[in-house]
Design goal:
Layout: H1 15-39, H2 45-133, H3 138-168, H4 172-202
Length: 205
């Protein structure tokens, strides 16, 4: 059978993981020396030489363990710093999302009020048209249409103001909706203006 080639890790291991693994490896070697020294009997020149060698190696190995431990502590501190930095970014994102949510909610309330105003004016416009068809006097019709024009102008202005605020606050979808509403309301207003002029032309001087 051929040699088995170990698979490469799918993701690059972090410095923290590598430092922890390096310390663990050194500790295993250090523990092995300790176990060996505990089991060793010094009863000959050879075993004495071996015991001395274990002590010398353990001294050097201890320095390596300390180095690896310091490296792991440094990596842990770096990880803590990264965590704090990420936390600050996420807290800022949460504050930004909260502020944007409040902006959006405020605009949606204005949109709801705009829709209600538009419905009221449309209802009044329908009532005025019914009066016209019923043969109401021109003076009464003119007064009602003039009042409707004033109300519709206010609604159109609000739609335009909403579009401006949405644009300023960078709400592209709401700006499009406000622009569309303004165009629709402006078309209704223009019809009211035309209707009032037509009635005015028929009214006795």
């Amino acid at each position: 059978m051929g040699n088995v080639v170990p698979k490469s890790p799918s993701k690059k291991e972090s410095s923290l993981v590598l430092a922890a693994a390096a310390l663990d490896e050194e500790l295993r070697r250090y523990d092995s020396l300790a176990d060996e020294s505990k089991r060793a009997r010094i009863d000959s020149g050879k075993t004495l030489e071996r015991a001395v060698r274990i002590v010398q190696e353990s001294t050097a190995r201890n320095e390596t363990v300390q180095d690896k431990l310091r490296e792991l502590v440094a990596q842990i501190e770096e990880a803590r710093t990264r965590q704090v930095d990420s936390l600050n970014v996420l807290l800022d994102a949460a504050r930004r999302a909260q502020a944007r949510s409040e902006q959006y909610d405020a605009l949606m309330k204005r949109f709801a009020a705009l829709g209600e105003s538009a419905r009221e004016v449309n209802t009044l416009a329908g009532a005025a048209d019914a009066k016209r068809q019923a043969g109401a006097p021109e003076g009464e019709l003119l007064e009602g249409l003039g009042s409707l024009e004033t109300q519709m102008s206010a609604v159109v202005d609000e739609a335009e103001a909403l579009a401006a605020v949405a644009d300023e606050q960078d709400w592209a979808d709401l700006k499009r909706q406000a622009d569309a509403a303004r165009q629709q309301l402006l078309a209704v207003k223009n019809k009211l203006v035309a209707a009032r002029r037509a009635v005015a032309m028929r009214a006795p001087s």
